[in-house]
Design a protein that fits this description.
The complex is a heterotrimer of chains A (138), B (238) and C (489). With 138 residues, chain A is an all-alpha fold. Chain A has four helices and no strands. Chain C contains 14 helices and no strands. In chain C, helix 2 runs antiparallel to helix 3. Classes of the chains: A mainly alpha (138), B mainly alpha (238), C mainly alpha (489). Chains in contact: A-B, A-C, B-C. Chains B and C meet through helix 1 and helix 3 of B and helix 1, helix 2, helix 5, helix 6 and helix 7 of C.
């Protein structure tokens, strides 16, 4: 209707309206994406849920079987007695370190040795002392 | 009709389709829930997860870059949409020694790990969904062979295999390098094309592609929710 | 529905001459660079087609591997030729119909050069092995934003020209052109952002790619073709479009139906089942707008008993309209779920359908527009009617061979694919002859287009004939003698 539609103002406005028209669905798409930013759950993560549940059950059972407080108490007790205890000779054959002089001596002894307790022998200072049986520690 | 009404009309007619055919399905499929298996129907618990091993991402990229999707498809259609499932070795194996008939149609979880499912545009070559099952069955029948080596040989020269002498698959020899033999020949070297001093070995692109193709075994048992195979009356009676 | 009547003849002629002069450089640039890309695309098509029946051809060269050459062919056909022909014709038609001179020729030319650079980079990317593997979007990912920006810089001025035109009435051709202009960014942004910038389910990515292919054909190329035909037919024959109702119906049914089409290529794929079947239904229904527009324009052309001048533009437009009718029939024949869809889904008939749409319909209309526009903007007439005849007839023979070969061959191939008791070699054997036909046909088309390129290049160099009468298809082959130097259209 307006014969002077051909003027710089209308042209300028139309330029931006044109861009807006071209971009309508781009903008809508951007809005859709912004509201759906959470990355999709992969099958791996979904499968992992069961694994994590199992792991939690295991951890719970383990901590129930073994109370932390008991362990701390036991550690305190051992820590108190450990500095003053002296290395004692080994009493059981099973606790002799293979390859140590004690073991070699035992092996060199005649066959009567297996029935008796493993004969304790003084270990040279350089060898690590076979420690007394420590309290069960997980 | 003014320009404004014209654009409104265009937006409405386009927008309706855009929303219902593109956007909403995209968002909903993006959040596709995994299928939870049930002890009674499926005999297992957890979710249905047709896991694939191998270099899926790298291999899919090489597959896309070299246009394999132009001639090969990766979809086994249900019987109402095509006869793919009737073929003996496309949807699985019709006569697998351990499981019997393992054929199934493709399901939505078969493309896990890829960003773009290479469904394919034409079938000049066979469908690849269960390519490695076919190769493994051939190896088992013959008693010797190796699917990886067979794939490398096919990529280098598709017409080398006398059974495929009419194949129109392009030769991907540019995915292989000619290398001097240092000491022993390489384990991946092609059994042909070399000489006393040189051998043909696959490049890392070829290895990625073959690793991807070796994962083409999409005949895991479908969960009951997705199993549209006809019920065997003898099995159902048990 | 015609544009408002012109003012007194001389000032209107001056206005039109001014418009043509302002658009001379951008339009000739788009047409010649588009034609060059068409040559490249057809050459790539020939190489790709040879490899289907003779795979050892050029198999030492990694860039010429089928998996790279074929996407390069399709993408150069669409983005190199299709879009540039579209730009050239669109900006001229919109300027003329709005009767506004082009004031942004410099911007348009620059954007055109950048467009060419982007297409070149994309093509080199595909041939070098960096294609994305997504049909019709195989250019490496950095290319699409550049293409989009160039697009805005080229077409926004036509939008402005339409807005500031005198009078309120608009021609049906303007609706089609404006709509195509607006639809393209909508589909391009949607597809590229969803596929390249967001992560979603891989099957939906494939579905949206298929939707994009169909939408690009039916919401950009076909509307441009129909708009051009709606402009040229009344202009060349001097007769009005017979039915305004059919024109409106044709346009709005296209607008409503076409956005739903495309996903029929994923029938049987594990997607929500309504998606592919809606796509198939929409594609079948597309026959309605296509046939409506084609019939309306054909009635314009044949609405009187008088003998029509053998104008090249009219010949190409008629051929394009035959293409549109064939496309309408093919849209129905190829996509009937339950019968033909399963046969054609993974066969070469998809390629035949796409080439019919892009070459048989769109490119023929563009050729018609080129033969109409170039004399007006260069103020010269086409030199050789023989060249025009060679271009027309060999293109027509070539496209008929490819389209019928691919459409029919696709059905044969599909039937062989469905014959599940036969070994797969049967399918390969069956396709071979159709691939050979396709190679031969593309060679014929390349031959026809050599005449087009040569002719267009000569016109660009200003070697056109000066004369009062336009060059017609039955002009004497040797048009040596120039008459009075003015050309009055």
């Amino acid at each position: 209707m307006d014969p002077t539609r051909n003027n710089p103002v209308i042209r300028f406005n139309t330029f931006w309206w044109a861009l807006w028209t071209f971009l309508i669905f781009g903008v809508l798409l951007a809005a859709v994406i912004v509201f759906n930013r959470k990355p999709p759950t992969s099958l791996e993560s979904a499968a992992a849920v069961a694994r994590y549940a199992t792991k939690d059950k295991v951890t719970e059972a383990q901590s129930a079987a073994l109370s932390g407080a008991e362990i701390d108490a036991a550690i305190a007790k051992v820590a108190a007695t450990l500095p003053s205890s002296k290395p004692a000779a080994v009493e059981k054959t099973e606790q002799v370190v293979p390859g140590s002089p004690t073991a070699l001596k035992l092996a060199a002894e005649p066959a009567s040795a297996p029935a008796a307790n493993g004969a304790p022998a003084a270990t040279p200072p350089a060898q690590p002392a076979t420690p007394p049986a420590p309290p069960a520690k997980p | 009709m003014s320009l404004r009404n014209f654009i409104l009309g265009l937006s409405a007619s386009f927008g309706f389709a855009w929303l219902f055919v593109v956007i909403v399905p995209f968002i909903k499929m993006r959040n596709l829930e995994p299928i939870t298996l049930s002890k009674d129907a499926d005999g297992a618990t957890g979710i249905f997860y047709p896991k694939r091993s191998g270099r899926i991402v790298n291999g899919a990229k090489v597959y896309a870059e070299n246009g394999c999707y132009l001639c090969h498809t990766q979809v086994v259609r249900p019987t109402y949409a095509g006869n793919d499932l009737y073929r003996p070795d496309w949807g699985g194996l019709a006569k697998d020694p351990e499981r019997g008939d393992t054929r199934r149609e493709t399901n939505a979880y078969d493309f896990e790990g890829e960003t773009f499912a290479q469904i394919g545009s034409t079938r000049m070559g066979p469908d690849l969904s269960n390519l490695t099952r076919r190769l493994e069955a051939a190896v088992a029948a013959k008693g010797s062979g190796d699917p990886a080596a067979m794939l490398y040989a096919h990529l280098y020269d598709p017409r080398h295999n006398p059974e495929l002498r009419k194949s129109t698959c392009p030769s991907y020899r540019y995915l292989f390098d000619r290398r001097e033999i240092k000491g022993q020949p390489s384990a991946d070297a092609l059994p042909f094309g070399g000489d006393m001093a040189t051998e043909l070995v696959p490049s890392s692109d070829a290895k990625a592609l073959v690793s991807y193709l070796l994962a083409m075994k999409k005949d895991q048992p479908a969960p009951a929710a997705l199993n549209f195979a006809p019920i065997d009356p003898k099995a159902a009676g048990r | 529905m015609s544009s408002s009547p012109s003012a007194t003849a001389p000032s209107d002629a001056l206005l039109r001459a001014g418009i043509d002069r302002s658009l001379r450089h951008p339009v000739m640039f788009f047409l010649t660079s588009g034609a060059a890309w068409l040559a490249v695309s057809i050459l790539l098509a020939i190489i790709a087609s040879i490899k289907v029946h003779y795979p050892e051809f050029m198999d030492d060269c990694p860039c010429m591997s089928y998996g790279r050459v074929f996407p390069a062919h399709i993408n150069t056909l669409i983005y190199g030729w299709g879009f540039q022909a579209a730009f050239g014709v669109l900006i001229w038609l919109m300027a003329r119909m709005s009767r506004q001179e082009c004031r942004a020729a410099g911007t348009i030319l620059t954007a055109g050069h950048v467009w060419n650079l982007a297409v070149l980079l994309g093509t080199v990317g595909i041939l070098g092995g960096s294609g994305t593997g997504m049909a019709w979007m195989e250019f490496p990912r950095f290319v699409w934003p550049g293409l989009l920006l160039c697009y805005f810089a080229i077409v926004v001025w036509s939008f402005i020209q339409f807005r500031v035109r005198e009078g309120e009435r608009s021609h049906v051709a303007q609706w089609y052109l404006l709509a195509a202009m607006i639809w393209f960014p909508w589909i391009f942004i949607t597809a590229n952002v969803l596929l390249n910038c967001t992560s979603g389910h891989p099957l939906m990515a494939a579905a949206i790619d298929a939707w994009f292919k169909s939408a690009l054909m039916f919401l950009f190329f076909i509307p441009l073709a129909l708009g051009t035909a709606y402009y040229l037919a009344p202009k060349l024959t001097g007769r009005p479009i017979p039915s305004a109702t059919l024109a409106k119906l044709g346009f709005w049914t296209l607008a409503v139906v076409a956005p739903w089409a495309g996903m029929q290529k994923l029938a049987g794929v594990p997607l929500p089942v309504f998606l592919p079947y809606l796509g198939a239904a929409a594609t079948v229904l597309l026959a309605v707008p296509l046939a409506t527009a084609a019939v309306n324009i054909l009635r314009t052309i044949f609405s009187s008993e008088e003998k029509l001048p053998k104008s090249p533009a009219l010949h190409f437009t008629l051929a394009g309209l035959m293409g549109v009718l064939l496309l309408a029939v093919a849209a129905i024949a190829l996509n009937l779920p339950g019968s033909s869809l399963k046969l054609t889904q993974f066969s070469i008939s998809g390629y035949g359908f796409e080439i019919l749409a892009i070459y048989g319909c769109f490119s023929f209309m563009m050729f018609g527009a080129v033969y109409f526009i170039v004399p007006r903007i260069t103020c010269r007439e086409w030199i050789s009617s023989r060249f025009i005849n060679m271009h027309f007839f060999f293109s027509a023979y070539g496209i008929v061979a490819i389209v019928f070969g691919a459409l029919f061959g696709g059905f044969i191939q599909g039937s062989a694919q469905e014959a599940w008791l036969q070994p797969w070699e049967t399918v390969t054997d069956v396709v071979r002859p159709y691939a050979a036909v396709s190679t031969f046909a593309w060679c014929v088309i390349l031959f026809s287009n050599i005449f087009f390129f040569a002719h267009l290049a000569m016109m660009w160099l200003g070697l056109g004939r000066r004369g009062p009468a336009p060059t017609l298809m039955d002009s004497p082959a040797n048009l040596a003698v120039p008459a009075a130097p003015q050309s009055g259209h």
